[in-house]
Each structure stands twice: as structure tokens, then as C-alpha cells.
Amino acid sequence: MTDLVTGPDGLVRPLWAARDPLMQAYYDTEWGMPIRDEQGLFERLSLEGIQSGLSWATILRKRPAFRAAFADFAPDAVAAFDESDVERLMADAGIVRNRAKILATIGNARATVAMRGTVPDPDGGQRGGLAELVWSFRPLETPAPRSFADIPSSSPESLALSKELKRRGFRFVGPTTMFALMEAVGIVDTHLVDSHRRGTSGVWPA
Predict the structure, then answer these.
(1) Which of 5, 23, 107, 176 has the maximum number of C-beta atoms within 10 A of its C-beta?
(2) Any idea which positions bind Zn(2+) (predicted)?
(3) Annotated catalytic residue, options 43, 48, 132, 157
């Protein structure tokens, strides 16, 4: 069985993006496109951590509920959550009610806020934060997979990013989760070579 299929619209996609309209829309418009702002990176990092052990389709279907429950993933707002918010979230049937992941998301928001102004920026200062840190682990080259078997689950850069985030107090940021984040936000391009989305991020050539 091929890892790619041609849809009724004539576009070539991987199997995971061809069977579910929601996943197809996500693949066609979001996955692999650059996200360079703090709030956007915090949301993706949070959802990738929450997704651990679950399917991405499950998280994507619940994403509107997650955004409502977590103040659109605004780091300052989530960092201010207290025990009453934890109990509110644990009672919210629209999200994944996992206490450890909820506490990690709140803790990661606080770590995000604390990181501001501590990461080197292109001018040599220390004005950067989460987005600058995550993007600083962009590799010198990206994979060029022709099948799912060619796509790695982690990389030296995702391992290094995981270690640095853990050092700064983040949780649920293992190297496999961080590689998935890097794929999702365009830091690496793991679109299969013959997919219609290969090279569309503008970060890497086709």
C-alpha cells in the first residue's frame, strides 16, 4: 500500500490526511507552516504535550474546547491559573481531563513567561523568549522522506531542545514530542517528497 493517495481534487496527500475532512484541512492549511510568535508556539507545545499517548485527530477535534478552557493559550493568563482553575479544567468534558497534563500546561505557561528576555536574539541581545528558543534548534537540513518509514521520530536537535526546555522548567517536552512540534511549526519539513505540501512553508525548498 502506498503512503500517498491522490484525492478527488487531484492533490497528493499522505494517508493520515486523506481520510478525515478535519485532518485534511489541517494538513492542507496548517501543518508544517511556520509559527514564530510566543502564543502560537505555546499553544502548539501545549497541545503536543497533551496529545502524548493519544491521536492527533482527538486533540484537533477538541482544540476549540481547549482554547476556550485555556484562555486561547495566552501564556500570562494560563500562568495565573490557580487550584480553582485546575478543578474547573478537570470538570470540563470537552478537553482531555488529565491532571498531570493540566498542571504541566500551567507550569509551562509560567516557564514561558519567565523565559522572556533570556534568549539571544539575532542582534546579539537577550530579548527573545519561547519562540526564539524553539527556532534556535532548527537543523542545517531537513529530512526528504519518500515514505512514512523514512520519517524519524526524533533528532539530535529535538533531543537538545527537550533538554533545554526541561532545564527551564517545562514538562511533557520529551524529544519525540519536540520533534512533532518541530514538524508542526515548520522547523523541519517531513512532508513526503511527492506530497502537494512539500516545500510550501517557505522555510525549506521542495
Answers:
(1) 23
(2) 191
(3) 48
Please report which helix (H) or strand (E) contains residue 6, including its range: strand 4-6
Q: Look at residue 56 and tell me whether its pLDDT is greater than 70.
A: yes
Element of type H or E holding 4:
strand 4-6
Q: 4-184: what fold?
A: Endonuclease III; domain 1 (1.10.340)
CA distance 131 to 121: 10
Let me know if 27 is a catalytic residue. no
Band of residue 126 on the pLDDT scale cut at 50, 70, 90: confident
CB atoms within 10 A of CB 47: 23
Structural domain boundaries of the chain? 4-184
d(CA 157, CA 178): 9
Taking the C-alpha atoms of residue 181 and residue 45, their distance in angstroms, rounded to an integer, is 6
Taking the C-alpha atoms of residue 24 and residue 37, their distance in angstroms, rounded to an integer, is 24
Q: Judge whether 143 and 152 are in contact, CB under 8 Å.
A: yes
| 191 is an annotated ligand-binding site residue | yes
Q: Answer for the pair 62, 95: CB distance below 8 angstroms, yes or no.
A: yes
Active site residue 204: no
Cell numbers for 41, please give them.
508556539
Q: Which of 41, 26, 58 is nearest to 181 (CA)?
A: 41
pLDDT tens, 107-119?
999 999 999 999 9
Is residue 119 helix, strand or coil?
strand
